[in-house]
Fold this sequence. Notes:
Elements: E1 3-9, E2 26-27, E3 30-31, H1 32-42, E4 48-53, H2 58-67, E5 74-79, H3 84-97, E6 103-108, H4 116-129, E7 131-137, E8 144-145, E9 151-153, E10 161-170, H5 171-184, H6 188-191, H7 198-206, E11 211-214, H8 225-235
Parallel strand pairs: 1-4, 1-6, 4-5, 7-11
Antiparallel strand pairs: 2-3, 6-10, 7-10, 8-9
Helix pairs in contact: 5-7
Amino acid sequence: MKNVAILLAAGSGSRMRSEVKKQFICINNRPLMSYSLEAFERSEVIDSVILVTSKEDIDYCREEIVKAYGFTKVKDYVPGGRERYNSVMAGLDAIESMGGADYVFIHDAARPCIDEEMLVRLYNEVRVSEACVAAVKSKDTVKIANNSDYVVSTPNRNLTWIVQTPQVFSYALIKEAYSVLKEEECGLACQGIVVTDDAMVVETWTGHRVKLTQGSYKNIKVTTPEDLLYAEANLLK
């Protein structure tokens, strides 16, 4: 089996209110994105990594992060696209140029708190379902609103989950889904479709069911300065 991780690190992190892109902000004296790379480096289920980042940051990532920390599984550096899904497409194209894969783990560099147990759970599940995502059950009541912010409905909290990354798919399935998306990309805005994650791409363009798999409440996405404090505390443990 050949398992490849796509690490998405091309965002600008505008909500962080920092001059430094959030993937490069230091937590405990290390760049935030280095924690995800370390988890992949140590993992028994990840064979190689495609790093997707801004074109101007590729040399920095190669020299100051990958080489500096001795990460040997990073096999290619790919410039990111305008939207997240464009960056994923670029990562999938890089995997194709490497000869393909069996399974693909797609992960946001802004989630530094992944661990081996989570990666193994996802790997065991994807071999059965072909499509699974890290997720946790919602602790709070969720409301569905209209465009004026009035409540439309209240779904059963026992059925609501908060989706995370990694999101894991068989290579054939995720490649098929993104191939269809690429063909229909121009019409997305006209239809009012906003692609927010990879599971949505698979659900929408292949109809394949996606299995929610236990992630971790610690696996937060670092988006605001307050999130840095929480991530720092978890990464010290």
